[in-house]
């Protein structure tokens, strides 16, 4: 099949997402679990702060700043910092592993729909069982690439700021041109790295490429057709902003009409609105994954 255009890839991704809409259900479960994994560290910090305040209050000190000093002392203790760092890191790693697990089942399912197989078969369980390990390696390489791109962007921005403060010596025009070119690459590098990482995930899940070859080929595809990938990413970003913004506006309007009602009555509409927003986000994520897979894997 020839390489699809941007509009064809968007159409193929939307069609695959529609046919695989049932993936929203496990996507919701993963989203809620990832949200829950972000809570242990801040809850533990609040518990430590409360313990410090109670300990300082029980000591008999009446200085106005003593409760804050007690909380700060407990929170900045080495043991507390190590425990908080461990909880945060464990939450981040578990959250990333959950996302990779969902992708290892969702991407093969989307690939089956993109290929329009005459003999479709369930791919989610198979991908989750056999595709998780290689996809995890690709995800780690993609994360390293994205972090490197963000570090590069930060370094270039700092260098441009220092250059502007020093007035570029006696060549302000040349300095301005070099600064503009550097800032352009600083803006583009994180986006290209993110698209390359997504393309690598798609190639690992659909074509069984190893982590390093998948990342290399994914970046080659993105750099070969940067306009197609960036245009698709911007189009999906605009669609996501519009749809999720509309969902939030509907939630605000619904809750506004229930203002003054008992909290128990408001809880139901609030939960429904939250689930609707998460479901829309999962469906849009499927559309994005299908589009990237179409651009990254079609020859």
What attributes characterize this protein structure?
299 residues; mainly alpha; globular; 85% helix; 11 helices; 2 domains
What do you see in this structure?
- With 299 residues, the protein is mainly α.
- It has two domains: 1-126 and 226-299, no CATH class; 131-224.
- 85% of the residues lie in helices and 0% in strands.
- The chain has eleven helices and no strands.
- The model has no long low-confidence stretch (mean pLDDT 85).
How do the helices and strands line up, and which of them pair or pack?
Blueprint: H1 6-19, H2 24-37, H3 40-58, H4 66-75, H5 78-115, H6 124-130, H7 132-165, H8 172-207, H9 211-224, H10 226-257, H11 263-297
Distance N terminus to C terminus? 6 Å
General form: globular
Q: Unreliable stretches, pLDDT < 50, 5 or more residues?
A: none
Oligomer: single chain
What's a concise summary of this model?
The chain has helices spanning 6-19, 24-37, 40-58, 66-75, 78-115, 124-130, 132-165, 172-207, 211-224, 226-257, 263-297.
């Amino acid at each position: 099949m020839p390489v699809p255009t941007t509009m064809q890839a968007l159409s193929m991704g939307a069609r695959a997402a529609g046919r695989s809409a049932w993936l929203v259900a496990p996507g919701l479960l993963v989203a809620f679990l990832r949200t829950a994994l972000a809570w242990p560290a801040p809850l533990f910090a609040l518990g430590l702060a409360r313990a410090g305040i109670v300990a300082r209050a029980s000591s008999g000190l009446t200085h106005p700043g003593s409760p804050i000093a007690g909380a700060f002392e407990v929170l900045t203790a080495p043991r507390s910092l190590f425990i908080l760092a461990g909880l945060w890191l464990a939450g981040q790693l578990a959250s990333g592993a959950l996302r990779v697990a969902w992708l290892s089942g969702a991407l093969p399912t989307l690939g089956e729909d993109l290929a329009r197989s005459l003999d479709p078969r369930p791919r989610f369980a198979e991908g989750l069982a056999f595709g998780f390990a290689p996809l995890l390696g690709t995800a780690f390489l993609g994360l390293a690439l994205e972090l490197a791109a963000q570090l590069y962007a930060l370094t270039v921005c700092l260098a441009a700021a220092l250059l502007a403060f020093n007035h570029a010596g006696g060549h302000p025009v040349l300095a301005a041109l070099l600064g503009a070119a550097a800032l352009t690459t600083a803006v583009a590098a994180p986006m290209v790295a993110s698209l390359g990482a997504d393309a690598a995930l798609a190639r690992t899940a659909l074509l069984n490429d190893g982590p390093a070859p998948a990342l290399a080929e994914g970046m080659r595809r993105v750099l070969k057709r940067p306009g197609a990938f960036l245009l698709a990413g911007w189009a999906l970003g605009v669609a996501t902003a519009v749809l999720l913004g509309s969902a939030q506006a509907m939630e605000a309007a619904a809750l506004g009409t229930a203002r003054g009602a008992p909290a128990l009555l408001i809880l139901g509409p609030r939960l429904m609105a939250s689930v609707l927003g998460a479901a829309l986000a999962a469906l849009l994520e499927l559309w994005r994954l299908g589009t990237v897979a179409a651009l990254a894997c079609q020859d």
